Amino acid sequence: MKRSTASSEHPWRAREAADRLHDAQSTEQLADMLARAMVAAGVQWCVAAHGRVPTVQVVAEYGPAPPIPRTLRVFSRGGHGELSLELSPTYPVYVTSAGESALAFIAPEQNATTEVLWHAARAILESLEQRQQCRALEFQLAQRTHMLETMFELVRDASVETSRERLLHIAGLRLMAHAATSRVFIALYDGEELAQFWARGVAIDATMLRALPRNLLVLHSSAELPGAVRQWLIAERIAMVAPIALRERVLGVVGIGARSDGRQQLLDDAFLSAYLNALAVAIEQLALLERFVEQERIERELALARAVQQRLLPSLERMYKTGGVEIAARIEPARHVSGDYFDVIERNSTIVCAIADVCGKGMAAALIMAHLHAAFHLLESQHASPAEVLRQWNRLLVRHTEPGSFVTAAILELDAQTRTLRYANAGHPYPFVLAPGGNTALLDRSGLVLGVVEDASYEEHVLELLPGSIVCLYSDGISETQCLDATEFGIERLRQIIEENAAASLDGVVESIFGAVASLQAPEATPDDRTVVLLRLATP
């Protein structure tokens, strides 16, 4: 406690002391300076106190002050918000408050000098409180600005160039800085599985991380968790665990160690909660970016695969009426690449045509199709018969593909000069021949689908055609299309379209077929690869 035996000073010193009241930087300092000024102005003694209503603490006394309790109670006096002190014996007292601060002083007498100095002190107290409130607001604003900047930086970090490991590293270091700790871990989950973790200062036990509750939606003290997990967290000096959650879906858990300054980690830390929410958004954003990048990569690969597959198909633009045969074909993949396959090879006056449908869609089916294409061209260079092509294809599939890789296929060999059609079928939808006048011959002789039994054999069948006959090969994506009337498109509809458009070019007939399928298809029907190949013998 500050004490002085001085009882008076020159008047100019009193005025100087009063002027210095404006230099006070705190309520305690103002109380001390006010007491000095009172004594300097000639008051015999003075006791000053400050604090918060309803109590104040004596912080300064100057002159021969009588014994006064160190803690004084403040109470309201009158109905106008006036304050006073509980004091015995009674002395003149001055009490005021501004905001959360209270200022009081006790003197042996009340006069004009004490009144003037007191009113000056009251004004300065209000100014100090306003400055303190401004500083508090500035501090809060700085905190919020820092929080927003940190949130922005965190979300910005979740970019295409940032890996998940890098994001967790950045987030972990920022959490360590904010929580003033050297011990932090971050664990991310994929469903019930531990997907990834980052740690600093913690001996990670993957078993314990997997055992952490997945339903954490608020911050918890590590002592609140059950069993072995709690013991592990305490042993690693983890003070609290917090969820990384997005829309009540927990993506991961953060463990934060004790503060290095000895203070307690706060479970109601607004910055920490906001930061973890932003981290959840950043992780989700990065996951979306990763999926987007992966999808883009797959799209590029599929586009490349489709381009390669298209080059494997015959160039129908270069096909011409050779040996008296007109050819038209079209293939529509259900996806980027097709499991359907067709090919046409000219051999003198003979046209060899193949059509196949791999069980399944997408890349796996397209790879099998590529194998069939290579084998078909090799076998045709050796003048293999339709039945031999199917036999060799079957051996290839059984030996070099996974069980369950089934293929239906049909091979036709058309000699335009003799108008002889040879064919062999391995479970493919039956081709048919539409003769002039509307007579239809269904090529309904078939063997086992390819890829089931290695030693399967296939028969070859022969048919004589009339001039102008149209041979139609197609995949089940055409014939089995579900229509609006709940029926399949079927062979009969296909035959009628060909017959109705027989006078048109074969390209026009193919266009009519695909147009009819598209218009009749039910909205809920599952799309399939679709292929049509037409061959027409010339008329004399």
Short structural summary:
The chain is α+β, with helices and mostly antiparallel strands and 540 residues long.
Question: How would you explain this protein's 3D organization?
Answer:
The strands form four sheets. Strands 4-3-2-1-6-5 form a six-stranded antiparallel β-sheet, covered by helices on one side. Strands 8-7-11-10-9 form a five-stranded antiparallel β-sheet. With about 550 residues, it is α+β, with helices and mostly antiparallel strands. The protein starts with 10 loop residues before the first helix and ends with a strand. Helix content is about 40%, strand content about 25%. The protein is built from twelve helices and 21 strands. The protein has three domains: about 10-135, GAF domain (Beta-Lactamase, 2-Layer Sandwich); about 160-290, GAF domain (Beta-Lactamase, 2-Layer Sandwich), CATH 3.30.450; about 320-535, PPM-type phosphatase domain (Phosphatase 2c, domain 1, 4-Layer Sandwich), CATH 3.60.40.10. The radius of gyration is 46 Å and the shape is rod-shaped. Helix 3 packs parallel to helix 7 (about 270-310) and helix 7 (about 270-310) runs parallel beside helix 8.
